[in-house]
C-alpha cells in the first residue's frame, strides 16, 4: 500500500488546483503549493443533515493511503486528526458539467440503506471532483476472495459467509434501483465495489458514477468479465446490465475465480480462454456441476444443495438476452429463499 499526504497548508475551505507537473506518479498532495487560485462557488457539500466532524480543510491536510486506481479515478483511505476514517474517490474523466454532476450526487446522496455505502459528501471544481464515502474496515469482497492466495495466514470464506455477502449485496442493489423514481443505475457492479459490514453482509459502493463519467473503452468492457454482452457495443448501462454484473459476482462467490482473469479453458474449443459465465454454462451442460465450486468450500457438509440453488440464480442473472434476466427484486427473494432463516 502507498501512503501519501493531502498537503498540510491551510486553504480556507477552498480546493486549489492540482500540480500537473507529474502524471506518472501518484499525487503527493491534493493541492499545488504554487497555485493559490480559489474557485468561486466551490465547496464541499454534505448529506444527511448531520453535524460533521470534518470539513474540506481537514480532508486536504490529512494523511491518506492509496487503496487503488481504477477507470473512474484514485481511491484513498483518509484518516483525520480525530482518527475518523472515510474513503475519498478523486474522480477523473468526468464529462458532466457542474449542474449535472451535482444533480447526480444529490440523487445518490438521498440513498440511505444498511447495504449501500453512504455518500457522505462531494466536491466539484474545475480541476477536482471528489466523492466521500463511508469506510468499511472489513475490506472488499475481492480482497476476501482473492487476497493472500497461497499464504499461510489466509482465512477462507465459508459458504455461510458467502451467502450473507450475497444477501446483503442483493438488497443493496435493489435499493439502488429504487432511486431516482426507479430509474437509478449502478453501472459498475464488481467484487471490488462490494464491501463487508461489521455483520459480514455485502454493501454496494461506487454508486451511480457511470452517468457522469466518460464511457469505458470497449476493450475494458470486453475484458473485465463483469459487463453484459450488450455493453460492449452501446457502453450504456441499464438495470438489466447491473443484474448481469451481479450474477457474475454470484458466480465469482461460488467458484472463487476472478472474472477479470478467469483461469478457465475449454478443451473442446482448442483450449481457448472463456469468460467465467460461459465456462460455468459449459461445465453444467456436461453434468459436472460440482466441478465449478471453490475448493475452499468443499470440506463443508450439507451445503451443496444451497450452492446449486445459488448457481442457478447466478446463471439466470447472466442470461445472454436482457429479457431473460430477472429483476433484482426477484433475485433478492430467490437468495433469501435459499434459507428460511439467516
UniProtKB/TrEMBL annotation:
Residues 61-342 form the Protein kinase domain. SUPFAM superfamilies: Protein kinase-like (PK-like) (SSF56112). The keyword Nucleotide-binding applies. ATP binds at residue 89. The keyword Membrane does not apply. InterPro entries: At_inactive_RLKs, Kinase-like_dom_sf, Prot_kinase_dom, Protein_kinase_ATP_BS. Keywords: ATP-binding, Nucleotide-binding. Residues 1-37 are annotated as: Disordered. Residues 21-30 have a biased composition (Polar residues). This is Protein kinase domain-containing protein.
